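DOMAIN: structural biology
WANTED: fold as tokens
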Amino acid sequence: MSRRTTVDPHAGTLPAEVAVAARTLAALGLVSAFGHVSARHGDHILITPPADLADACTDTLLSIALDTEALPAGAPGEAWAHLAVYRARPDVGAVARATPESAFAVGGTASGTIPPLHGQGALLGEAVPVHDDARLMRSAGIAEGAAHTLGHADAVILRGNGALTTGATPGHAVARMWLLDTTCRLHLAARRAGAIHSLTGEEITAWRAAGPPLLDRLWAHLRSLGGQPPL
């Protein structure tokens, strides 16, 4: 018996990109009941609601003005974190918020920044900063602190509270979250081995110069593992 598939009228649009990125983040096991994906949309952002990302679809996305002073009804409290990043970083087109266990482990044992140990790790920035505040980012002030710690990096570990990653597209933000999880796992393994040999500045520059095509390839691979429209 054949199976009937649903057709998403938003396929290929920014809302569809956000929804697919959210479902992929869930399929990769980088979120549990908590996590969000958002994208810049003119003077607004599109963000997933406070619900399981595995069920994300275009019809449930919320639109929030970038200059809002109060979140609309139904918006996730930590939308403030997304808004803070967009306000501080005009170059950012999308944000992923997730809770990989590896980020909890590294955030609880490290301070300052985490240098890349492998080439693809450089696609997170010259180093990944650790935000030393485990409070929920449910106010503009607390969220602005995390955005300040992020600085010009592409990812930030939130001690006791997961991580944020950025990208030009929702797919790139999710790809960077996967890379952050890998980077954290490598750091934990290197510490157990008793030796950490990070990339040099020249190596980091070379990898970052090749970044966009590599993120495109990685995102194409990751989205093939999950995030497709439900049947």
Remarks:
- The radius of gyration is 17 Å.
- The first strand starts at residue 36 and ends at 41.
- Residues 77-224 form a domain with the L-fuculose-1-phosphate Aldolase fold (CATH 3.40.225.10).
